[in-house]
Request: fold
Amino acid sequence: MKNEKFTKVVKVGSAIVKIYRGKVKMKRKKYDAFTVAYYQNEERRRSVFGNFDDAKKATQEIATKIAHRRVNVKELNGADRESYVAALNLLRPLGVPLHSAIESRR
Reply:
C-alpha cells in the first residue's frame, strides 16, 4: 500500500457517506483503519472499523437510513409500540391523527 489517497463514496438518493482509509498504531504495530464519515443533524459523525467489509456494510446502512430519513428516529420498545398502535386503531375510525388528538387535550 503506497501513499495513495483512498476514499470510497456511497450515495443513496441524496445521502452521501464516505469511507477513508488510514493507519492506527497499537503496541508498535500499524493496522489499517477505515473511518466512515457522514453528517447527521448538521454534525459530522465518524465511526472507525478494523476491516473494509464492515465499514462498507455500515456505510450502506447509514446512507440508506439518511436517505429514508430514519436517522435519529426513536425506536419504540414492545409496550410503547403496542400503546402507539392501539391509539392509532382507536383514532382511525374517527379520522383523527394522533398528534391532533394529543394537541386537543392541551
Remarks:
- Residues 34 and 101 are 47 Å apart (CA to CA).
- The chain has a mean pLDDT of 84.
- Residues 7-67 form one domain.
- The beta strands are 7-12, 15-26, 29-40, 43-49.
